[in-house]
């Protein structure tokens, strides 16, 4: 017998198509079997149990295209230039081990309760994988590796080691959770290791997460080899390369259609945008973290105009106030002057496209997983999407559904 249910609400916003008043979603075996007006869905499946959410809207679950789970709010480093913040972060690493798992559990819970159904998480050596796996969300943990941790090994040996470790960690996980690799950034991973990791990721059909062109100091470090990051990553033979971080990683062979580049916030030139477009590299937009760490504003409208894939990311609690992706999106809407429909799309289908999972998630379409957020608002204005994003941003997610299962439900229906 197939597992079936109907979720009904005052409004369904499938994102792929326009709003449906008095809408419903028919779920069968974890996937969307039909979406449309409740009357039609009911007619086509008269025996199936209905859960009605009066006064609510159903939207696709949020897709967090870049986040970190292993940080906690209470000892967040003060907002400052990126290198000052990074120094403080590094100084706290020794004691962090004792509480990272608890922080990751809390962060994941916060994301779930804010309607997140898929998360692309990055953590050192994939340390937050157990907490993502137990959260109920679908997602990938991207294991960051740092070449200095592999003394005496060649770049190829290091890269093989991290991929092998990610493969082993993927054993025995829930469906829709896996472990892949991250090349942390142009200032922490040498270009040879970064390029080899990209080659292997492409060969295996995987996805590679990177941080790129985040702060003014990263741009200065790659261009001239000077500034705050040069003090942290001191090296006698590094003089900068006279090019932008985007050019630098393109030359290293890192960029490609399987790459999700977080931030792209500072000094992203027209030439950089051309490179992102021609390599089909996707972007994860994390505007609140960018503001906190004195980065510039990512040129998201220009990216969208060029057809560069853009999703939203919360980053982690040491640079961002919450794991609520809808709150991040509302910030982006106001920053760029976008309408609600575009905002909701970036938070859901945009993220899925950026991560290459748009055939499986990101919108309420037949055949995709039933990944949904139920939001406590029945919008009646002209910009229904904006009302939904605002309420979800303010803590108004009433239930979260992943693969047709409720992973969070504060309603009594
Ligand atoms: Zn990050």
Order of helices and strands: EEEHEEHHEHEHEHEHHHEHEHHEHHEHEE
Bound molecules: zinc ion
Strand-pairing-aware structural class: alpha/beta
Biggest beta-sheet profile: 8 strands, parallel
Question: Do you know the CATH architecture of the largest domain?
Answer: Alpha-Beta Barrel
Annotation field: number of helices: 15
Supply the CATH superfamily name of the largest domain: Metal-dependent hydrolases
CATH structural class of the largest domain: Alpha Beta
CATH topology term of the largest domain: TIM Barrel
Shape: globular
| DSSP strand tally | 15
State the gist of this model.
The chain is α/β, with parallel strands linked by helices. Helix content is 37%, strand content 23%.
Identify the notable features of this structure and list them briefly.
413 residues, TIM Barrel, 7-stranded mixed β-sheet, 8-stranded parallel β-sheet, Urease, subunit C, domain 1, binds zinc ion, alpha/beta, 23% strand, 2 domains
How is this structure best described in words?
- The chain is α/β, with parallel strands linked by helices.
- The chain folds into two domains: 4-61 and 363-409, Urease, subunit C, domain 1, CATH 2.30.40; 62-355, Metal-dependent hydrolases (TIM Barrel), CATH 3.20.20.
- The chain has 15 helices and 15 strands.
- The chain has helices at residues 38-44, 82-96, 100-113, 129-135, 155-169, 191-203, 216-224, 228-232, 245-251, 270-279, 287-292, 300-306, 325-336, 340-355, 384-393, and strands at 4-12, 20-28, 31-37, 50-60, 62-67, 116-124, 138-144, 177-183, 208-212, 259-263, 282-285, 310-312, 372-375, 397-402, 405-409.
- The strands form two sheets. The chain has an eight-stranded parallel beta sheet, sandwiched between helices. Strands 3-2-1-4-13-14-15 form a seven-stranded mixed beta sheet, covered by helices on one side.
- β7 (138-144), α5 (155-169) and β8 form a beta-alpha-beta unit.
- α14 packs across α15.
- It starts with a strand and ends with a strand.
- Residues 66, 68, 211, 262, 315 line the site of zinc ion.
- Zinc ion binds at residues 66, 68, 211, 262, 315.
């Amino acid at each position: 017998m197939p597992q079936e249910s109907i979720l009904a609400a005052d409004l369904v916003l499938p994102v792929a198509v326009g709003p449906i008043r008095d809408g419903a979603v028919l779920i069968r075996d974890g996937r969307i079997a039909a979406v449309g007006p409740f009357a039609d869905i009911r007619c086509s499946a008269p025996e199936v149990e209905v859960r009605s959410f009066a006064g609510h809207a159903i939207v696709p679950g949020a897709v967090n295209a870049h986040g970190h789970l292993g940080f906690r709010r209470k000892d967040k480093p003060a907002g400052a230039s990126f290198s000052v913040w990074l120094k403080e972060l590094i100084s706290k690493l020794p004691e962090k081990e004792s509480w990272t798992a608890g922080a990751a559990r809390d962060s994941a819970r916060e994301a779930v309760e804010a309607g997140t159904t898929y998360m692309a998480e990055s953590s050192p050596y994939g340390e937050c994988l157990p907490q993502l796996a137990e959260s109920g969300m679908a997602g990938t943990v991207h294991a960051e590796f740092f070449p200095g941790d592999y003394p005496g090994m060649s770049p190829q040996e290091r890269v093989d080691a991290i991929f092998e470790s990610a493969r082993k960690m993927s054993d025995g996980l829930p469906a829709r959770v896996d472990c892949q690799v991250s090349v942390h950034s142009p200032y922490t991973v040498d270009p040879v290791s970064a390029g080899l990791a990209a080659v292997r990721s492409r060969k295996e059909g995987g996805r590679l997460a990177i941080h790129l062109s985040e702060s003014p100091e990263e741009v200065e470090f790659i261009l001239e080899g000077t500034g705050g990051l040069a003090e942290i990553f001191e090296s006698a033979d590094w003089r900068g390369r006279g090019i932008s971080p985007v050019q630098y990683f393109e030359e290293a062979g890192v960029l490609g259609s399987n790459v999700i580049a977080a931030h792209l916030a500072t000094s992203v030139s027209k030439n950089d945008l051309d490179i992102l477009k021609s390599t089909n590299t996707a972007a994860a937009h994390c505007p609140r973290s960018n503001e906190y760490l004195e980065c510039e504003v990512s040129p998201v409208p220009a990216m969208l105009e060029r057809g560069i894939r853009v999703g939203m990311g919360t980053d982690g609690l040491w640079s961002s106030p919450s794991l609520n992706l809808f709150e991040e999106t509302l910030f982006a809407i106001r920053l760029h002057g976008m309408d609600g429909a575009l905002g909701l799309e970036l938070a859901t289908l945009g993220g899925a496209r950026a991560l290459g999972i748009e055939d499986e998630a990101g919108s309420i379409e037949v055949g995709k997983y039933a990944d949904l957020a139920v939001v406590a608002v029945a919008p009646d204005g002209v910009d229904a999407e904006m009302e939904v994003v605002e309420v979800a941003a303010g803590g108004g997610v009433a239930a979260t559904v992943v693969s047709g299962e409720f992973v969070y439900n504060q309603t009594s229906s």
